[in-house]
């Protein structure tokens, strides 16, 4: 396990961006490489940054958390967690359209993850779009595992919605 320190004096491995900037720019523009890959950020580094953003969110610093998660998405657009985090932030700010778009992106990136479906369903419930919410909850149940707390949440929400109708 690599131990990371915020201001490590160890040199970062040579990144494509530094060794061949034009080739890196083409790869990034074509969508075949992320900034994470080009700059050589480790998953551990990005995880630590996302933890900080989550802590800011929990402490009510919503805009600061938003800026960090947007930056993380620019670095690694293949990480569904960042889309979900932004979806939660936008929903908290009252922008349900943007929240739904972020959860949809999370589902596109990770279609076998129940979390994106449940999160989008929660926004749909808040918007009183119950049929759409039920469809997302059903999909979360189908792709997930019954032992997963997110799937158990989907089951509970589905039961409540069915009773509500």
Please supply descriptive tags for the structure shown above.
mainly alpha; Serine Threonine Protein Phosphatase 5, Tetratricopeptide repeat; single chain
Strand content: under 5%
The biggest sheet amounts to: none
Calculate the mean pLDDT score and round it. Answer: 87
* CATH domain class name of the largest domain: Mainly Alpha
CATH architecture of the largest domain: Alpha Horseshoe
- State the CATH superfamily name of the largest domain: Tetratricopeptide repeat domain
Named CATH topology of the largest domain: Serine Threonine Protein Phosphatase 5, Tetratricopeptide repeat
How many domains make up the 3D coordinates? 2
Helicity range:
over 70%
Oligomer category: single chain
Brief account:
With about 160 residues, the chain is mainly alpha-helical. Helix content is about 70%, strand content about 0%.
What does this structure look like?
The protein has 2 domains: 21-78; 80-165, Tetratricopeptide repeat domain (Serine Threonine Protein Phosphatase 5, Tetratricopeptide repeat, Alpha Horseshoe), CATH 1.25.40. It is built from 10 helices and no strands. It has helices spanning 16-19, 21-30, 35-39, 43-58, 62-75, 80-92, 96-109, 114-126, 130-143, 149-164. The termini are far apart. The model is unreliable at 1-14 (pLDDT under 50).
